[in-house]
Structures are given as structure tokens and as C-alpha cells.
Amino acid sequence: MNARVLPYVLIAPVTLFLCVFFLYPFFLVAQQAFTTGNGFTMDNFREVVSYWKFPISLRNTFLLALAVVPVQLALSLLMATMVNNMKRGRDLVLYVWTIPLGISDLAAGIIWLAIFEQSGFLNSMLYGLGVVDQPASFLSYQNMTVVFIAIMLAEIWRATAIMLVIIVAGIGLIPKEYYEAAEVFGASPWKRFVKITLPLLRPSLQTALILRVVLAFEVFAVVAALGGSIFPVLMEQIYENQFNLQNGGTAAALALIVLAISISFTLVILRALRVPKGATI
Amino acid sequence: MAVIEIKNVAKRFGEYQALQDINLTIEDQEFMVLLGASGCGKSTLLRIICGLETATEGEVWIGGKRVDHLPPKDRGISMVFQNYAVFPHLTVFENIAFGLRMKKLPDDEVTRRVERTAGLMHIDQLLQRYSGELSGGQRQRVAVARALAMEPDVILMDEPLSNLDALLRMEMRAELKGVLAESNTTAIYVTHDQVEAMSMADRISVMHKGEIVQAASPIEVYRNPAAEFVAGFIGNPPMNFLPAAPAGSGQWHVAGQVIEGPQVDRALRFAVRPEDVRPAETGLTAVARIVEPLGAHLLVTCDIEGEMFRAVLDSDLAIRSGDKLILAPQPDRVRWFDPETTKAVA
Asked: Cα–Cα distance between A156 and A178 in angstroms, integer?
């Protein structure tokens, strides 16, 4: 076959797949968001934004992302450094740490619900130890802080490993000689981490952060299991609009808002962690 | 002032004995080359001196201070790595400044030292570039400049030229020697390249299987190898060996000839360098097998009583494969080795 045509033929199946299952649905959603019965309109957006739960769910989603992602970043860097310095049992530890990745987010939410609910493990333990006279209701609207912390814990437990695996792979790619050179030239372990590991890890950090931040804005099942309707988030509002209110237009508008947030954060992360021009990492 | 003393250093990796019984004193401002084949322990020794590796036994002293328990930064050393280890995310300037910044030197001092060493290594035009925009030779210069900028007592180099092409290597060899001589530092230089070792060193330590076989000046190592290993390792082509049987009172039978040698009463090995034999009326009888014209010389690989023997002869001699030659060894260049201990016998 003609060498000029061949590459296009080879990428054609993937392109077709992406068009049919990603681009086309995306345009459908966009169309749904920007139309009602009578042509182009911003009514759907106006409606979802003016709904009283929108600011709350937006704030909750951001707060959660803000509370969870930095902790996960720090944790995954720490865990990756530990794993990388292990001489034996490295793979085993890595496997164990990534187990939560294999559990669906709803199941993860239910696991943590089993801990925190009124008849859950935590209450049984506290009651058994005589710390409380009667089981407390942690996950109620009177205890919003506890609800928030429970969701945070569940999210951290569930989704740190996705960053961990990317960062472990990234750290593994940094040649040992850079660390030795840094050590000889007087860098302490902390300085080596800050001056060598972090800058050389930028491409991996970009990937890990983008993936994690995007997922953080899509948080749903864990929140639904632990917080239910007392802790509304954006995804939960989409579900509400689509299935309970049977309004595809407003659901689509919300979905586009989430998409816009994700894209902006992606751009911010790409910009913040860019590799200086000319440097090859 | 930095004399380096290595006392009874040994290093084991599990069962593997990488170094044993290393004793070496390197004088102030001396250029010492550790020479040996790969796996001989030369890099391990360098890493122990530098502090990236800990000796299983023994002591390392630098400038009259015991340093083997100190981290690298407190040993007054700096190092040039084999793959340069020029940080890819920093500019050339920041690479050279790295150690100075770690020492928290004031900015103007950092700039002064970076510019001075960059000038010395002829990379002052490249200070704002990144490592990825440099050639191998330029990266090498950055690595050396970074080490020099520390103004160390001792500079350690681990095969610094091995990744350069032949021409550049020759150029850098001379340049590096000049720069180091001017910097008044003690230098330890690891290489497997004997030409590099011969041309740069004040003294060469030839290493083999985790031991220092001989530590002496380049000429001494070449002329008077302390052991068969050194004789066979140094020189290209290496020294020739032939079995010798005692003929009594310091006379030896070598390939049917009687040659004067040491007064011992056990079998020895006769050795002579390929360039130290001449065609003559009497001498060792050889049959030429392969003749390689090298311009100025002919390298003739011959056969003496079943042993391989190389001779470097004048290229005007018309020698062809199969010719019979009589080769006379230059008497003052003949050396003798004990086949039991492989050590030289005087």
C-alpha cells in the first residue's frame, strides 16, 4: 500500500471508535445542553445555576477536591519514595497498596459506611470500650464535619493508589547517578527530594494530578453512600436532574460545567508543572 | 593540602569480595590513576573514597582527617561521573552552581566561581543552555566545571572520558590534565584505558580482582611490571612470555637459546616487550604467522616453539607470513616472572 496513505489507514479504526463513542455523544450532550424545544438557548444553564443546591454542591465538590488531592499527592509521593527505597518485598507492598483501586467506588463507599454508620464498626468499638454510652449517629446533618471527614478518608483510601502507581513509575525512571551527584555536591535527603526528584518527576506529576483532579470533580458514589443527600456534589446533581427530575437538558448543562472545570484545572496543572523550554526530562 | 591515605580497605557485597587489603597513599596534588579491567574494583574503591559506598573494613583519611564515617559533602571532595550526571532540569549555570548553592555561598561568589570555571572549561557561551541542548563533549565540560567550582581538595573522576569519541577523548585528555595541574587539587582518576592512564598519570595503580597489583609511575609500570598481569595488561600489544628452564648459574634455556637471568633454581617465565626484539644472527627462532603493517612498524605475530610471540619491527623489513626469523631480545629489557606467584623476579 502507498506509504503516504498507510498511517491514516492504520489510525482509522481508532479514530472511528473515538468519533462514534466519544465525539458523537459529546456533541449530543452539548446539543442537549444548549437547546430546549425552540432552538439555541442558555436556559438550561440559567436553570441549574440558579437552583439553590448548585452553589452548595459546587462548594462541596471544590472543598472535597481541595482537601483530598493535596493529601493524596503528599501521601503518594511518600509511599512511592518508600517503595522505591525498599530492597525486598517492593512488589508485594505495591500490590497491597493498589488493592483499593480494584474496588468499585460504590463498594468503597459502602465499606466506609459499614464503619461509620450507627450500627457500624466504629460505634461498636467505641461502645465496647465504654467510650460512648450509646452508639452515636456520625453521618447525620448535625455532624457535617464528620460526614466530610468520612468522605475524605474514603476517597483518600480509595484513590491514592492511582497517583502512587504513576509516581512510582516516574521515580523509577530517574537515573541513580543524579542522586549520587547531588549527594556528593552536598544535598541532604530532603534537598535531593526537592531539587532532583520533584523537578524530574514533573511529567509524572502532571499526569497523576490531572487524572486525580478530574476524578475528584466526578466524585459521586462514595459521597452518595456516606453522605446521601446531606452532602450534595455536582455529579449527584447531574444524577438528580437526569433520573429524578427527568430533565436531560439541565443534566447535560451540568455535565458541561463539570467538563469546563476539569479542562481549566488541567490547563492550570499543565502550566504550573511545565518543563522549562529546552530542558529535557 | 590533601594527602589521601587508604588503609587496609576491604569491601564485600554478600559473598563477593570486591576489594581486599587495599593500602595506598596518594600525595598532595598528585594525579593518581586507578587502572584495571571492568569488575576489578576500581570504581568501588573510588566510591568508597567519595563516600557513596562504605568499606566493609579499613580506613580512609583525607588531609590528615579520618573521613570514612563522614558523608561525601564533608570530605572536601568533588566528583565527575561517567555519565556526567548533568541535571537535565537545570541550566548549565545552575548545574555548575549546584554545590555552591548547597553550601549557601552568597550569590556574587556563586556567579564569580561559575564564570571562572566555565571560562576555564570554555563553556562560558553555554551557561543558559540545558543539558539536552549540549553535545556529549560539552556535557563533559559542564561536569568537570561543576566539580572544579567547589574548589575541592580532591577531585574524583570515574571514567570521565569513556563516553566520548576517540578524537574528542584525545583532546579532552590533554585539556583535563592541564586544568587539573593548574587547580592544585589531588586527583584520582578511574579508567580502563591504558593510554589515558599512561598519558595523564603521575602514578598508576593497576588493579586486578579487587587488589592493587602495582602502584608506580607510568614508565615504571611499563618497564618493570610487578606481576604478569601488569605485563599483559599494559602495552599494546602486551608483553611476550616464554617458558624458561634453569641451565645453572644464572643461565636459562629459552626456546633453545641460552639467556642470562636471575640466580634462582626453579622454572621461570621469560618476558620481553614486542618492540624490544631485533632481527639478528643469533636469538630466538620464530616463524612469522601474521604480518600487519602499521605504517611506522610491522606487527609480526609469530610462533616460537608453539607459543605466540609478537614483535614490532621496522616496516622496511620485507617479512611475509611463513618466513623464519631470528629475534634477539634487548638484554636490559628482558624481565622474569615466577609462574607460581606470577610476580616479577629480579
From this structure: 32
A177·B87 Cβ contact <8 A: no
> Cβ atoms within 10 A of the Cβ of A146, count?
16
Quick one: average pLDDT of B107-133?
A: 93
Rounded CA gap, A51 and A2, in Å? 58
Last residue of a domain, one of B213, B233, B253: B233
Give the minimum alpha-carbon distance from B50 to chain A in angstroms, rounded to a whole number: 8
pLDDT confidence of B330, banded at 50, 70, 90?
A: very high
What is the number of domains present in chain A?
Answer: 2
Does B79 sit within 8 Å of A177, measured CB to CB? no
CB within 8 Å: B102 and A186: yes
pLDDT in tens, B243-269: 998 887 888 888 888 888 888 878 899
* pLDDT, position B260: 87
* Cell numbers found for residue B155: 577531585
Residues A66 and A10 in one domain: no
B contacts of A278 (beta carbons < 8 Å): 129-130, 132-133
**Cell 476517597, residue?**
A155
Q: Identify the residue among A173, A185, A202 best suited for mutation to test binding to B, counting B beta carbons within 10 A and taking the highest.
A: A185
**Quick one: pLDDT at residue B255?**
87
Which of B261, B242, B231 is CA-nearest to residue B332?
A: B261
In whole angstroms, give the CA distance from residue B65 to residue B44.
21
A123 and A136 Cβ atoms separated by less than 8 Å: yes
A184-206: pLDDT as tens digits: 999 999 999 999 999 999 999 99
- Pick the last residue of a domain from B175, B202, B233: B233
Is the domain of A120 the same as that of A250? yes
The set of residues, in sequence order, having a beta carbon less than 8 Å from that of A190 and lying 6+ positions away, is: none
A71 and A94 belong to one structural domain: yes
CB neighbours of residue A24 within 10 Å: 11
- Provide the mean pLDDT of chain B: 92
Over the stretch B7-51, which tens digit does the pLDDT of each residue have? 999 999 989 999 999 999 999 999 999 999 988 999 999 999 999
**Which helix or strand (DSSP H or E) is residue A263 part of?**
helix A248-272
CB contact under 8 A, B85 and A200: no
Q: Output the CA angle B233-B61-A85, nearest 5 degrees.
A: 80
Question: For residue A200, what pLDDT is reported?
Answer: 94
Q: What are phi and psi of B41, to 5 degrees?
A: 100, 5
- Contact between B132 and B88 under an 8 Å Cβ cutoff? The reply is yes
DSSP-derived 3-state class of residue B266 = coil
- Here the cell at position B265 is 633454581
B265 and B138, same structural domain?
no
Contacts of B87 in chain A (CB under 8 A): 178, 181-182, 196
- For residues A61 and A36, membership in a common domain is answered with no
The domain that holds A184 is classified in CATH as 1.10.3720.10
Going by pLDDT thresholds of 50, 70 and 90, the confidence category of residue B1 is low
A206 lies in a domain? yes
Residue with cell 519514595: A81
Order of strands, sheet of B4-13, starting from the edge strand that comes earlier in the sequence: B16-26, B4-13, B57-62, B65-66
